[in-house]
């Protein structure tokens, strides 16, 4: 009976780890797709659908995290109380250690854990570490600015974050344009500084002439009555 319970719990932990990791990958992939569609402005319905998928994946990952914590705690408690044979304890220790190593290989893992805990400053620091580990991944900077805007209500800090990201790295065209559009959005909607927003759009047009990014920037300036 006791051994059967061990087996069930171990299988449950492994299953939960797999689902937890898969949800994290799905979040990142869908988030990038949403950013592309949202930035292009060509298909708002698709953008909304992708955003819903991101939220759904985040909810799934949170539920898996709770289940994983519950089952892990139960397994550890039974091991301690039941005085499992040293060999089994050794294997469990290695399993937990190996799982930890796999998580650490994902630079975004710790940051998302901090977000789930509501530790905004801790999450920002972890996202900065993720950005250092993956310099060509714009997502950490986007997440930092999002926390600063929505959780810390500090749009000036979000502007500094986005400007630093734009100026500190040689981005690919789509990534650079996205960050610049995001910066212009913060200037215009959060700080009421349309002049700086317009200047950013002009920079997009100058940096990426004859591209859809330039066309989108010109369209935005037209909406503002500046061209």
TrEMBL record:
Keywords: Membrane, Transmembrane, Transmembrane helix. The chain crosses the membrane at residues 6-24, 65-85. Pfam families: TPR_6 (PF13174). InterPro entries: TPR-like_helical_dom_sf, TPR_rpt. This is Tetratricopeptide repeat protein. It comes from Luteolibacter flavescens.
